[in-house]
Amino acid sequence: MGTLKEVAQHAGVSISTVSRVVNNDTSRSVSSETRQRIWEAVTAVGYQPNRAGKETGRRGPSKPPTGVRTGCIVAVNQNKYNHPYFSPILEGIERGIQEHGGSLAFIHTSEDIKTPELLHKIVQDSGIEGMILLESIDPASYEYIKRHVPYIVGIDISDPAVSRVGYDRLMAAKLAVNHLISRGHRQIGFIGGSGRSQNIMKEKRFRGYKEAMDEAGLAIRKEWIVDAEWNVDKSYSLVKNIVEKPAEMPTAFFAASDMMAISAMRAAFEQQLRIPQDVAFVSIDDIEFAQYSSPPLSTIHIPKFEIGWVAAKTLVDTVRNPYPLPVKITLPFELMIRQTS
């Protein structure tokens, strides 16, 4: 049976657009041509929209094993929705919901819920019993969702009042930096971005980088901390400014995401620097393309599909038989050593 991801790829649209069309969600307009293309793709890949659970009650102390109607909001902008990191997580969410007898009413992005009317519609008029939040959204929208959605499971969010699924970002970063240190690197730069705190020093992957450097007695140079704001173009341009002066550049970079690492590698390549002989790279995510970059990228493998699947199962289990306290599930990660280090 096909998936939303396969329908989106076949139709050439985002997964959120497919979700709105197959669930008859009118919170954002979709052209008739696009709708027709999506329904043709549904037939072509054999996707079966799951309508189960629409009439299920909104809450109660315990739920029988019937369809659980859920929704999902992803903390990315609409134009960056087809992200190689988020896409496998969404696939895991969809598969997990289906395998445990639930239905996915919608997948929306943080861009979708900027308008209060749209947020009200998808939260209160969709008949959902629970919601999965994929990373942090703006505080006002989050508080509204907490007030009106009975059960929430977060993926990589910081609220201890809700059940959470994710991985230890700080320890993953330390593992990556310690790998560079074990290869003899002493001058290591950082490429990343800040979270909602707007302070890169508070971001967990930066904190992991700093802890590894501090424990090894290595200095951190301010000019080698690249705040690319999670933007691949900025990662490229800012790293380019550094590598244009080879005598003053680090011998290695730790990047907080594969996407930023790959664009930074391009900047080094254009300066005719050899990777890893002149500058090495290690990052986090292990997106599908990482093993096909030139050279193949060393990175921390994050079990993205499994994170989504576990979050989906946790939500369905919570709706049917609520836990007495919020749970926190931390999945393992693994260092994938390839040719950039």
From TrEMBL:
Name used for this protein in its record: LacI family DNA-binding transcriptional regulator
Chain ranges of the HTH lacI-type domain: 3-58
UniProt cross-references to PANTHER family, sorted A to Z: HTH-TYPE TRANSCRIPTIONAL REGULATOR GALS, LACI-RELATED TRANSCRIPTIONAL REPRESSOR
A UniProt-annotated Pfam family: Peripla_BP_3
Record organism: Cohnella cellulosilytica
InterPro entries per record: HTH_LacI, LacI/GalR-like_sensor, Lambda_DNA-bd_dom_sf, Peripla_BP_I
Recorded GO MF terms: DNA binding
Keyword Aminoacyl-tRNA synthetase (UniProt): no
Keyword Membrane belongs to the record: no
Gene3D superfamilies: 3.40.50.2300, lambda repressor-like DNA-binding domains
Region: Disordered, residue numbers: 49-68
Keywords: DNA-binding, Transcription, Transcription regulation
Domain of life: Bacteria
